[in-house]
Each structure stands twice: as C-alpha cells, then as structure tokens.
Amino acid sequence: MKIRIGLVMIVSLGQLGCATTGTNGVVPIGPDLYMIGGLGKFTDFSGSTVKARMFKEAAAYCAGQGRVMSPVNSTGQDSGFGTYASAEVQFRCLRSNDETRAK
Q1: Which of 27, 39, 61, 62 is least enclosed, having the fewest CB within 10 Å?
Q2: What is the pLDDT of residues 4-62, one digit of tens each?
C-alpha cells in the first residue's frame, strides 16, 4: 500500500513538472500588436534561446496571416536555481510593403 501511494506521488509530481514548462500562445495586446511568451525546456539555460524560439513562433504567426513580423520589444531571463529560462516578445504583423516597417 505504501509503495502504491509513493508511486502515485512520484507520477503526480512528474506530471506537475511537465505542466510548468511553458505558457505559449500569441496574445493580442493592442491594435495590430501581439505578445508571445513562454518558459524554456529543461535543457534551455539561456533566455536568448527561448527568445529565439518565441521570435520564430511570432514570424510563423504573421506568415499565417500573409504578413511579416516586426519586433517591438523583447525580454529574456536565464535559468537559475529552481527557475526555467523564460522570454517574452512583443511584435506587429505588417504587410510586406508597409511603410512603418522601414522605421
């Protein structure tokens, strides 16, 4: 019985750990302004690695709308004791001939 309870606890903790490895998804935060953020994988130690992944997801999101991604702001934090690396990217999806893209 004790072994069964211990096994249930280990499996539960393992699933909980997997549930905290990201909060991904594009979120509109203003007129034609979007944000995407998330946590790195267990093997990601650099916030820059996570940020690069977020930029790729942002570019794919805009490409799906027939537009190009234009970065507005970004932040990243390296992993530390008890924390995963993380990043947040704010971006716009612009038409390929949009005049504001050159700015």
Answers
A1: 27
A2: 555 455 555 444 444 444 445 999 999 889 999 999 888 888 999 999 999 999 999 99
Say what the pTM is: 0.69
3 falls within a domain: no
Amino acid at 85: A
* Residue numbers of the domain that contains 37: 22-102
- Tally the domains of the chain: 1
In a domain, 11, yes or no: no
Residue with tokens 């390296």: 78
CA 67 – CA 91 distance, rounded (Å)? 12
Is the CB of residue 34 less than 8 Å from the CB of residue 65? no
